[in-house]
Amino acid sequence: MTQPADIRSRIQNEILDYVAREILRDERHRIDPEEALISSGLIDSFHLVDLALFVESAFDVRIDDTELSASVFDSVRELTEFILERLRGDAG
Predict the structure, then answer these.
(1) 20-36 pLDDT, tens per residue?
(2) Which candidate, 10, 34, 8, 30, places its Cα nearest to that of 19?
């Protein structure tokens, strides 16, 4: 049986891999899960939409347009927690 920590780690690693590969275009560049993405300027609004589409597809969760913000997407850790809430059915 998969443990919650395993799920959290898998989600976080998939997002980190996506950001490095598709947004930063450097798979060797690893960001810290706590690192600010939006407020630091690391990702722009175009990449934010790409990241949201990836999350919806990879984790089968729905993201409302109003949730495309720094409060949800500003760090991989915050985004991981958002996804976990959606997977548990806590949000809505």
Answers:
(1) 999 998 878 889 999 99
(2) 30
**What are the residue ranges in the chain where pLDDT is below 50?**
1, 91-92
How far is it, in rounded angstroms, from Cα 59 to Cα 70?
20
Token readout for 42 is 């690391």
Q: Which residues contact 16 (CB under 8 A, 6 or more apart)?
A: 30, 31, 33, 76
Q: Interior CA angle at 90 toward 88 and 92, to 5°?
A: 125
The set of residues, in sequence order, having a beta carbon less than 8 Å from that of 38 and lying 6+ positions away, is: 48, 69, 70, 73, 74
The closest of 34, 31, 22, 33 to 58, measured between CA atoms, is: 22
Other C-beta atoms lying within 10 Å of the C-beta of residue 90: 9
Tokens of 10: 């898998």
